[in-house]
Amino acid sequence: MGKRLFDIAASALGLLLLAPLLLLVALWIRLDSPGPALFRQTRVGRFGVPFTIHKFRTMRVEPGAAITVGADPRITRSGQLLRRTKLDELPQLWDVLRGAMSLVGPRPELPRYVELYPADLRDRVLAVRPGITDPASLAFSHEAELLAAAADPEREYREVVLPAKLRLSADYAANASLQADLRLILATLARVLSG
Over its length of 195 residues, how does the chain's per-residue pLDDT go in tens digits? Predict the structure, then answer.
């Protein structure tokens, strides 16, 4: 209960204080390339229930791979900065406020990747709300570059990155606490501010 109250208070305050920045970023995206300011995608949430995640759009509106690898040519000029600074994640504060996500929790995956979860880990990871950040997000903050170095990025993600992230997420879910969340939020902010 304390975690949810903290999520509501922090996300509402964040949206209120960041409203001018959010509007400026949205305008910049619209001016930079054709398409909507927001990117919406179906992800798997708590107890396996699908939900729509919101991010600032960082790529041109065109078909492509589900994973982003290195200097993906679809990334827009504004998208490069938004990804580097993690500002593209800010609309997820709305997802936290509405209860689909938490500030801290396992990053929500696409349904096709959740199908690969082993049953025991799946139940543990999906028992908590997905989050904007978690230990796996910090450990794999340069995931796109890691995948770019692989001969087969999709296979590397499925067989190496995803299992490692899943183990970290399961450990978080088993030991989640408000105190641990605060440490992860501070570590995430430090990582973002340090570039």
Answer: 689 999 999 999 999 999 999 999 999 999 999 999 999 999 999 999 999 999 999 999 877 666 666 667 889 999 999 998 999 999 999 999 999 999 999 999 999 999 999 998 999 999 999 999 999 999 998 888 888 888 899 999 999 999 999 999 999 999 989 899 999 999 999 988 886
**Segments making up each domain of the chain, as ranges:** 2-194
**Partners of 38 in the β-ladder:** 56
For the whole prediction, is pTM greater than 0.85? yes
Q: Kindly report each contact of residues 63-68 with a partner whose C-beta sits within 8 Å and lies 24 or more positions away, as own/partner.
A: 65/153, 65/154, 66/110, 66/112, 67/147, 67/153, 67/154, 67/157, 68/144, 68/147
| Tokens read off for 134 | 């978690």
Q: Are 51 and 42 in contact (CB under 8 A)?
A: yes
Distance of CA 42 to the CA centre of its chain: 12
In whole angstroms, give the CA distance from residue 147 to residue 155.
Answer: 9
CA distances, 65 to each of 34, 60, 62, 145, 164 (Å): 20, 13, 10, 15, 21
Name the residue type at position 30: R
